[in-house]
Amino acid sequence: PDGDIIDCVLSHKQPAFDHPELRGQRPLDPPERRPKGHHHRSSTTHRAEESFQLWSTNDEFCPEGTIPMRRTTETDFLRASSFTRFGKKKTIRPIRRDSSTSNNVHEHAVGYVTGQEFYGAKASINVWSPRVTNPFEFSLSQMWVIAGSFGDDLNTIEAGWQVSPELYGDSFARFFTYWTSDAYQATGCYNLLCSGFVQTNNRIALGAAISPTSSYNGGQFDISLLIWK
């Protein structure tokens, strides 16, 4: 329904293992014990536990031992400013997310916690599909775990939903991940568009459209994200 082609790729053949430090390895099974947390369900908010993406609305998933990958097309590459920058954020000086100074680059609202050491974070994010005014704008809601300063040593792990016509060619709200270890300069990318991020789940496709989404005076839908060490 969203025009995507989802390929089921053998887990050890995913782009992560093109990285020199991971080449020849195989993905480990996800840990059996996940951090315990509080579970709250409201009467007006719904969570789709098994199927929250358009490609799997008919309960179609990839077999065990494989992962779903959204197929990248020639059109996707042509929308990018350059081949080398495809799937990457623009290399601008990172803006402190706890700062009100945006220099007209980002309009954002943020809640944040600072401290010495954190071993995990969890967020439930309401999912919308906002309209952006031109193909080069985007809108997102995400959880953002960072280390380092806001200089060249910035490390981030990011996950959430985004509407990005430039990246995906449409205005669907899509589940995404992002990472960088050098402030978005040479490392990192969205989803599985470069080596580094290892996926183990066979039911969720990074970059795939989320359905349903929230509506004004209507149903509210969210996704829950957990990052832990």
TrEMBL record:
Residues 12-50 are annotated as: Disordered. It holds the Pfam family Neprosin. Residues 35-44 have a biased composition (Basic residues). Residues 100-229 form the Neprosin PEP catalytic domain. Residues 15-34 have a biased composition (Basic and acidic residues). PANTHER family: LIGASE, PUTATIVE (DUF239)-RELATED, PROTEIN, PUTATIVE (DUF239)-RELATED-RELATED. This is Neprosin PEP catalytic domain-containing protein. It comes from Genlisea aurea.
